[in-house]
Amino acid sequence: MKKVQLTGNERLLLSIIEHKEEPINIKELVNITRLNRRTVLGIIESLRKKGVPVVGKRNGKTGIKIATTQNEINESCMTLAQQSAKMLRTSAYLKTSDLKHWKEHIKTM
């Protein structure tokens, strides 16, 4: 596999994630790095593109970590696929919104 160059921020985040015993959540990464949330999420995506197995953990101690098993990668991929499907459904609902008459279809309590 070809070696890839990491940016300074990618090295910083990777170092933090690698040295944590437990998964670390995005809010903690934002506080530690002083980077904004979008930047942190973008760096995580970039690390994944470069082959770093950063996975999200949704049960127990939630957050992100470096995968150590194929099962962790599979579980994270399944979660991402489910989130993607939900976003596509939401997009479809939005596309069919009636800009002129939507208020007429909403019943308020």
From TrEMBL:
Q: Where is the Helix-turn-helix type domain?
A: 11-60
**SUPFAM superfamilies in the record, alphabetically?**
Winged helix' DNA-binding domain
| A Pfam family this chain is assigned to | HTH_11
Q: Which organism is this entry from?
A: Candidatus Ligilactobacillus excrementigallinarum
Sections of the chain in a coiled coil: none
Question: What is the name listed in the Swiss-Prot or TrEMBL entry for this protein?
Answer: Helix-turn-helix domain-containing protein
Note the InterPro entries from the entry: HTH_11 (IPR013196), WH-like_DNA-bd_sf (IPR036388), WH_DNA-bd_sf (IPR036390)
